[in-house]
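User: Quick sanity check before I run a bigger batch. Here is a single chain. Can you write out its predicted 3D structure?
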Amino acid sequence: MALITERKPWIFDTEAAWSDGSKELLCLPSGTWRTERPVLHQEHCTYCGLCYLYCPPQCIHPGAEAYTVDLEFCKGCGICAHECPTAAIEMVAEGVAGDGSA
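Assistant: Done. Predicted structure follows.
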């Protein structure tokens, strides 16, 4: 069995095992697709980074003291809320305020 020692180049500029979201293909404003959006409750956040890590469109960004969600690119999939170990992210319907009131 021969070992592969040479790595073949990627075919496309945006092809990689992990993307940083800066390529044009990944920068599609898809925020109008969603029916729910994430609301971050900072008092429960431990800044663990799981929401940032698991966000498929990579629209959660770390800040100095808190994470922010770029709603222009958020599809409302809810993976960030599902992965959050402290339930600091709540998915609310579009048009509903973050405290659960309309």
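The CA atoms of residues 68 and 92 lie 16 Å apart.

User: Great, the batch can go ahead then.
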